[in-house]
Specification:
The structure is a homodimer.
Chain A: E1 2-6, H1 35-43, E2 52-57, H2 61-67, E3 76-79, H3 85-99, E4 104-109, E5 113-114, H4 117-132, E6 137-141, E7 152-156, E8 163-169, H5 174-183, E9 186-196, H6 197-207, H7 209-223, H8 227-235, H9 243-246, E10 255-259, E11 263-264, H10 269-275, E12 290-292, E13 298-301, E14 310-314, E15 319-323, E16 327-332, H11 339-348
Parallel strand pairs in A: 1-2, 1-4, 2-3, 6-10, 12-14, 13-15
Antiparallel strand pairs in A: 4-9, 5-11, 6-9, 7-8, 7-9, 8-10, 15-16
């Protein structure tokens, strides 16, 4: 049993807390625990130590290890450059298959929140049983609302907990999302996949042969101890493809286990605000903050010397306020998606040090 | 000709920019010039050097001199404790009368904004001519809107520019303020008074004899060079009274010169925001600020090392944002008056260092 945690994301939606050099998975956006650390902790009953691999970018190695003391360098799959998810998952499958081609691999994004951890583990174990029988299996989240920001998986319900995937659906419009919610057969695609290493490699061979060739080359390099030396050159030749569109959507048979465990992708400051613990006025903030006639605000103070300081909100509602050593963001909760426009503006202004 | 600038104010309405140790008159709230410095500069054509006195509190001496390099210690009337305006103005009149009892004295608050400075000086000169004829004279501001936050002076219009005061009126309600504006005979009381030193002392003798006794004692001390030694003890015995209610309102004859020179008391962050220069979206802010879908916001960054930092506002409107080394205030413009509640809360929480 192996787990691979995808921790290469950059992301600008959580600026100024997230930076290119300190991305979302290294933030404590919910309940004080870093998202990556929570992901590693949650999957530990299934895989840890040598059975746990963390895929990340070369520029994130130091900060990832510093932020997650339980990890060692040997557990990292360090991508020399970002090539989307297919090369990364293929490389993980290749690496694990060298040890045990029948090993079941659980792939998890590093930057999600899960409220009901026993239910999550239970769902993963159902998916593992399915994958162990040779069927690539994904976990789909039962929708709680008509979300237009996620991709969906249409499933064919079965009597058991393992359903068959009918198709993948791109982010829907409002009306379509409402219909999906009502139908009960559409699940959110959360990017969680479970498979035997050999099955994933066979699927890549069938649907993305250019990647399969590259992975065999990489495997040969690794077998003679030259992987580190040849990795950068070879990785650059791999097709930059999403595992969803290049492989998963083309499979004749794909299983899905519906999951209902308080999942969130923590996609924006709005979501972080919604998940935060709040006082009677709906505010979440450091204890030192002062509120006067202010409701439903989410205040994050990431300054190292914040103890002697105070943040005071008067008469304002529905704001997210994020303070770091070099930046202050004030955003209306509903406009959280527009935070990336600040990052764009800073780059245009020649202030890349701030992003 | 003398001018006395009243610069003893404390004030919590401009927290966190203003503090007990750094009050409003020392802030650059409009156009980058400190209010006290602007007041001193504006009156310079009429009085400067030895003819200009600044009344302030003992705890503000160092910061006032540091902030206003044109002033010397000899120009300060340092009140050992706050005793409202009557003792302060009486002390100034006593001090000036020792040099020249017929000198005309212009009393000005230190913390007001005036847009049309030539019109202001012209008005002051009319008031000086009136005062030189032995009539205590105030300057009343022609209302531009139905303000409920100021006291009013009802005047009896005359053919010239010097009118007679009928009565002082406390801050009115909304309907009354509308009526005052429509009547055209009501002026805002801006706390500007012009008088011969001897006339003010006579008025104090007539209407506030306890103060007159104290001032005579103080004058005797000063005449023999002992003022500094006896000041604190004597000042504590003076009645803590407002010159308006204790003297001005009781005078049988008081003149008022209507003034129309773009006056503002800069009474709150709302006013400061209104007076600030704005960009096409109504925002006023440091050039480094980033606005995304944000309108009508007023951003003040008083941190010494603000150059490397950025303040970004996304989707918010009508906010005042003030950042200092130890505090961040975010207030809806219309709730600016409630900023003092933050100061109250900080004192209650045992954080007096922040106020």
């Amino acid at each position: 049993m192996y787990a691979v945690v995808l921790a290469g994301g950059a992301g600008t939606r959580f600026w100024p807390a997230s930076r290119r050099s300190h991305p979302k998975q290294l933030l404590s956006l919910v309940g004080g625990e870093m998202l990556l650390a929570a992901t590693v902790r949650r999957i530990a009953p299934i895989a840890q130590g040598e059975q746990l691999l963390i895929a990340t970018g070369s520029q994130l190695v130091d900060v990832t290890l510093a932020a997650t003391p339980s990890l060692t360098r040997a557990q990292l799959l360090v991508e020399p450059m970002a090539r989307n998810t297919a090369p990364c998952i293929g490389w993980a499958a290749t690496t694990i298959a060298r040890r045990d081609p029948d090993a079941v691999v659980v792939v998890l994004p590093a930057d999600q929140f899960i409220a009901d951890e026993p239910a999550f583990l239970d769902t993963v174990r159902v998916a593992i049983d399915s994958a162990a029988r040779g069927v690539i299996t994904t976990i789909g989240i039962k929708p709680t609302h008509a979300e237009t920001g996620y991709g969906y998986i249409e499933a064919v319900p079965a009597s058991g907990r393992v359903w068959e995937v009918a198709r993948f659906v791109e982010k829907p419009g409002r009306a379509q999302a409402e219909a999906f919610l009502a139908a009960g057969t559409f699940l959110w695609n959360a990017g969680m996949f479970v498979f035997r290493a050999r099955d994933m490699l066979a699927a890549i061979r069938a649907h993305l042969p250019a990647l399969a060739d590259g992975l065999e080359h990489l495997d040969a390099l690794a077998a003679r101890g030259d992987e580190a030396a040849g990795l950068a050159e070879l990785f650059a030749t791999l097709p930059s493809s999403s595992i969803d569109t290049a492989v998963m959507e083309k499979l004749a048979t794909l299983a899905v286990v519906p999951g209902d465990f308080g999942w969130s992708d923590v996609g924006s400051w709005l979501t972080a605000a919604e998940l935060a613990e709040k006082d009677a006025n709906g505010n979440s903030a450091p204890a030192s903050a002062v509120f006067v006639g202010a409701r439903d605000n989410h205040v994050v103070d990431l300054r190292e010397d914040s103890a002697g300081r105070v943040i005071a909100l008067v008469g304002v509602s529905g704001l997210v306020v994020v303070e770091t050593a070099d930046a202050l963001l004030i955003v209306r909760r509903e406009d959280s998606q527009r935070v990336r426009e600040v990052v764009d503006a800073l780059i245009l202004r020649g202030r890349p040090g701030l992003v």
